[in-house]
Amino acid sequence: GAGGWSPLVSNKYQWLQIDLGERTEITAVATQGGYGSSDWVTSYLLMFSDSGRNWKQYRQEESIWAFSGNTNADSVVYYKLQHSIKARFLRFVPLDWNPNGRIGMRIEVYGCTYRSEVVGFDGKSCLIYTLNKKLINALKDVISLKFKTMQSDGILLHREGQNGDHITVELTKGKLSLLINLGDTKTHPSNAQINITLGSLLDDQHWHSVLIEHFSNQVNFTVDKHTHHFHAKGEFSYLDLDYELSFGGISVPGKSGTLSRRNFHGCFENIYYNGVNIIDLARKR
């Protein structure tokens, strides 16, 4: 269309902010310069937020990604994002523009409504899922969720057995640890305890994804896009665990003595256990 955004002052402190009205999955962006002008942006950063206060920069291949913008006022430059963004607010931050003109932008954002189930924890509660014994597959377990918090410590997930075996995912000083304990060290002298730590500064009030895949004695632990693969000895293929999963804390504190036992304070999104939507089940009681 005619017109476009052109701030009164062209410097690196300008930005164009969009409120999409609700959390949206953004898959692509496109830009033009100002209509019928010599005003266009040659490179820009893209930032996103759920609240409009706490911002994160779009990254690609673990580095801040500067988008190449326009070389004239009218050609459309379209980018399909390597990783989709899930956010309500977007900011386009010009870095450089036509030296013979000013900052000028017309933009378009592509995506779709993002459907999610979110549950909040107050640091005193936990969500307990009792598994259907018929659906248990001892050789395969897949747990996935997203979380965001401002607290540096808290238990995200805990599952314990009668003999002291337990699996725990715990946030400690902003890092996420997967702790697997084979309780009886006489029966399991090797690999009695596995402690894998991933991530840092995960208490930044942004969403972070967690995926735990346990196939026989192979464990994959993924936080955001970083995966730790672990291959344990034979005894590990079967953990003696109860038919109960606890999210956000430990349902009966005291059994696992080494843990900080601090319950999670923040939000979980889209908790899945072997394809079962846990938050949806909780809402349906």
Brief characterization of the structure:
It is a single-pass type I membrane protein. This protein is an all-beta fold.
- Do you know the CATH architecture of the largest domain? Sandwich
Instruction: Give Rg in angstroms.
Output: 24 Å
Task: Tally the structural domains.
Answer: 2
Shape: elongated
Low-confidence stretches: none
The ordered H/E elements are: EEEEEEEEEEEEEEEEEEEEEH
Largest sheet: 7 strands, antiparallel
Number of helices: 1
The name CATH uses for the topology of the largest domain is Jelly Rolls
Distance between the termini: 50 Å
Mean pLDDT: 85
Query: Strand-residue fraction?
Result: over 45%
What is the β-strand count? 21
Structural class: mainly beta
Helix content: under 10%
Q: Can you tell me the CATH class of the largest domain? A: Mainly Beta
Organism: Donacobius atricapilla
Protein name: CNTP4 protein
Subcellular location: Membrane
InterPro entries: ConA-like_dom_sf (IPR013320), FA58C (IPR000421), Galactose-bd-like_sf (IPR008979), Laminin_G (IPR001791), Neurexin-related_CASP (IPR050372)
Detailed description of the structure:
By secondary structure, this protein is mostly beta strands. It has 2 domains: 16-113, Jelly Rolls (Sandwich); 118-284, Jelly Rolls (Sandwich), CATH 2.60.120.200. 2% of the residues lie in helices and 50% in strands. It has 1 helix and 21 strands. The mean pLDDT is 85.
